[in-house]
Amino acid sequence: MAEVTLIKAINDALATEMARDLSVCVLGEDVGRGGGVFRATEGLLRRFGPERVIDTPLNEVGIVGMAIGMAMNGLRPVAEIEFVDFIYPAFDQIVSEMAKMRYRSAGQFTAAVVVRAPSGGGIKGGHYHSQSPEAYFIHTAGLVVVMPSTPSDAKGLLASAIRGEDPVIFLEPKALYRTVKGEVPQGEHLVPIGKGRIVRPGADVTLVTWGAMVPVAGKAAAAAAAEGVDVEIIDPRTLWPLDIGMIEASVNRTGRAVVLHEAPRTCGFGAEIAALIQERCFLHMKAPVARVTGFDTPFPYALEKSYLPDPERTLRAIRASMDF
Predict the structure, then answer these.
(1) SS3 of residue 258 by DSSP
(2) Which of 129, 139, 189, 284 is labelled catalytic?
(3) In whole angstroms, how far apart are CA 98 and each of 29, 63, 65, 70, 318?
(4) Is 129 one of the annotated active-site residues of the chain?
(5) Distance (Å, whole) CA 109 – CA 52
(6) What is the pLDDT of residues 156-206, one digit of tens each?
(7) Residue-wise pLDDT tens digits, 87-109
């Protein structure tokens, strides 16, 4: 194994899958010579050539539309959107075509497309480069939605997404691109879609979170431990389909649940998780499900640190759950 950053793990996954399967190709703005805005595709053009690493115009609807057509003709395209904030021009292609291809064709066709996009805040990108729109895509039947938080998961989940038969929205927490390192298996490496991960076992409170909030949860759990509270952290990794069984088992043991995410609070994915916990764990609950989230405002530039959940806000929710 080698210790690498999350962005390097993504690059490694792309290179490994392209070497393994000639039908895998990459397309997007500046993915070739430029190596992508965050250098996730660096070196792929030189290794695999312009027929498989395709620089496109600045045209998200065209990128996704072309990827759908490629997939329906036997290729396995990985489309990059430079920032997830720019995905909205392609929204109709994703939710009306890509997500519904299998259903509308009665299983005769699918669109095995992976749409990669850097997501979330933490880099002072302001309101056009910091959004967390995962709930839009989770709401759409037919889409798989993934967000890793470690280099190993990033490589393994991306490889599984590329090999799968379903369309995948693969969200990458850009705040973690170069701020986290971890051991990643060399060569082929798969992490199963739909299976969560227990980041930290605990007995008192279940804390469910994903992406760039996983390190925040870790700091909050460490602070809670100093106060005698044992927090279990669960990272779903695949947001949809959700590993609700893992969450349910944990909450039934602890009796308390906190959901942490950086997207806005109203109709954020935390609301769905809270509803699922209430439906499945109600008789075991010792306190209401708590949510720690971003605010129902445009993502601010100057006040980014105030907007993003931090360990202290998370710790307050843990304390409130314990004191209920």
Answers:
(1) strand
(2) 129
(3) 20, 12, 8, 12, 40
(4) yes
(5) 22
(6) 999 999 999 999 999 999 999 999 999 999 999 999 999 999 999 999 999
(7) 999 999 999 999 999 999 998 98
